[in-house]
Amino acid sequence: MKRFTGMLPFLLVLAVLYYAFPYALLQLGMALLPKIGIMIIVSFLCSLVYSVLRPFGSFLFALLAGLIFLPSAFLFYEGAWIYTFVFAITCLIGGVFGTQIIKLRRMKEK
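RESULT FIELD:
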């Protein structure tokens, strides 16, 4: 439970990113597809920061990030559920990078 409560602020940021950002773009009449790149970068950075603060929880975080995005795929992207895997893999890569940063820091300290 403690691991999930540490994840909660980062998952909330991703939920806002996955739902409020596309909704705002729809209201402005802007295309959604070019903005996916921004969402991927923010997902990567969020996962990277989470894994630096709490190493070795990246797989669960990536799984939950993908599950959070899944309803958004049907709401905003006309059923393009493949983006769920894209965001989950992006978060997993960010988590692995963050974990490696922690390992490098520990090696330098020794």
